[in-house]
Amino acid sequence: MNNSGSTFFSAVHQLIDQLHADEGANISLAAGILKSQIAQGRLIHVFGVSGHSVIGCEEFFWRAGGLACISPIFDLSLNLSGGGLKSTALERVPGVGDKAVKVLNLDDEDVLIITSIYGMNAATIDAALEAKSRGVKIIAITSKRHAEQTPRDFVARHPSGKNLADIADVTIDNHVPHGDCLIQRPGYDQKVGPGSTILVSCCVQWLVIETLRQCEEAGIQPPVWCSANMPGGDQLNHDLIGSYAKRIKAL
């Protein structure tokens, strides 16, 4: 009997259960920060930096049931749409990631969520350091384990050797293991079955749900998108689009 699916699902379930057991306090802290931004009518900025970490940024943005006040940073020079080799090369170059943050002119009243699966490449750290220098509050969704187990002189690292969790005000540990992949198959040195997309999506949606709960508790009406692919969705989203289309470049 082929049990490869069972092995993968079991591994993912264990990590999700551990994530749920460990990260409640950090989710609550981060949600409180987002609630404050929503109460003030401010945008919540999100940067997925590069590679598949962009998926975490996309999971926040223009999502059915998601917050409408999300302003994503999509840097095409770092995204996979610009080429896989190029994305990997540029995310390792100091002086790239900070530019994507700098052009937004963020200040000490802003919040930036950085979704970085591994939390240690040069572009990620430059983005975080630029935001920190401006007094921006940083929420990280990243793997502490991967960053801590990666040598400080590894080629992809920022010259400072810092991890994203060293810089962020609040870190939600996505519980992605070192190297991401979960399944060892006979005859292969490389494991397969990466779990990061599932784990990061769990972090994102848990954070959104907790933010909504805290808003409701405080009597705040958060802006939430309806699915555009269901009857009445466009009509329900109409007023939100009017409110945010000129404020959010990606819309």
Q: What's the CATH H-level superfamily name?
A: Glucose-6-phosphate isomerase like protein, domain 1
Estimated helix fraction: 40-55%
The stretches of 5 or more residues where confidence is low (pLDDT under 50) are none
Q: Largest sheet, described in full?
A: 5 strands, parallel
Topology as a string of helices (H) and strands (E): HHEHEHHEHEHHEEEHH
Q: Count of DSSP helices?
A: 10
Instruction: Calculate the terminal CA-CA distance, rounded to whole Å.
Output: 48 Å
For the secondary structure, the number of strands is 7
Shape call: globular
In CATH terms, what is the architecture? 3-Layer(aba) Sandwich
Mean pLDDT: 95
In angstroms, what is the radius of gyration? 18 Å
CATH topology: Rossmann fold
> Structural class, judged by helices and strands?
alpha/beta
Beta-strand residue percentage: 5-15%
Domain count, please report it: 1
Task: Describe what you observe in this structure.
With 251 residues, the protein is α/β, with parallel strands linked by helices. It contains ten helices and seven strands. The strands form two sheets. The protein has a five-stranded parallel sheet, sandwiched between helices. It has a two-stranded antiparallel sheet with strand order 6-7. The longest helix has 22 residues. It is globular and about 55 Å long. The model has no long low-confidence stretch (mean pLDDT 95).
